[in-house]
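Prompt: May I have another protein with tokenized structure?
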Amino acid sequence: MKQLGLVVSGHGRHVMVESPDGSRRICRSRGKKSLALVGDRVWWTPTEDEGTIDSVETRRNEFFRQDELRTKSFAANIDQLLILIAAEPEFSETQLTRALISAQAAQIKALIVLNKSDLTVPFDQAWRRLQIYRTMGYDLFSLSLKHDHPSYEVLFQSLKGQMTLILGPSGVGKSTFINTAIPSAQIVTQEISQALNSGKHTTTSTNLYWVDKAHHTALIDSPGFQSFGIHQIAANELSHFMPDFKTPAQDCRFYNCTHLHEPNCGVREALAQGLIEASRYKIYQQLFEELSSARSF
């Protein structure tokens, strides 16, 4: 008999499905590719000690990255994205922008969290670089996961009642963050890794952890990444997903303005007036060229 469950871990064609009673079972997709993502509601059929995914309920969103060759999906049906970066190693503003653009395109709220506030000099430099994102409407938080930090409680209030995907490059403290919020997460991770035979979870699988017994608040740990493609977005739509570009772009003379060379361009006028940072415009140029080239083959 078919049952409805929630995907709480994924590794290749294998996923862990949680039933309403809290029990969990490994399930496989019928085809060669996995149908389900962490956060999906799925209908599945028991098969001896495992199960088979029959169908996936309609998603309200999906967060993914896409390069020229493939799409890498992180999770589905999330309420918000928490982008975790660190004062050291120095974060890439281009990679941060790519993740924020993907969140905007998927209509998913994004929080930006800077870890390692105990490293005073590099932290102060990084924090200053991030202030521009506050002016765009993003919520910023600072942390020191190795030390008690008052803003952790403020951040945690923003996570309550939400399903939050934790995203960030390798080595910024994603696992430490989750283990701080949920002390039992490490034990759960080991159990999932053994069941799915996935090895080190920090590089291979995505896992959902319940913060509270009532299952109202969840954190989703995702594999680290070194690149983040946004090839799902057309070059001429790029400015729609950059908050500091969106309003000035409405003043452009041409509806299909690329904001690169056209006369009477609202974006370039805002750049000249200092309303758009030069570093942001440079990133826009790089991304526009990348996305334009990708669609010329």
Observations:
- The radius of gyration is 21 Å.
- The chain has three domains: 3-56, 62-221, 235-294.
- Confidence is low (pLDDT under 50) at residues 198-203.
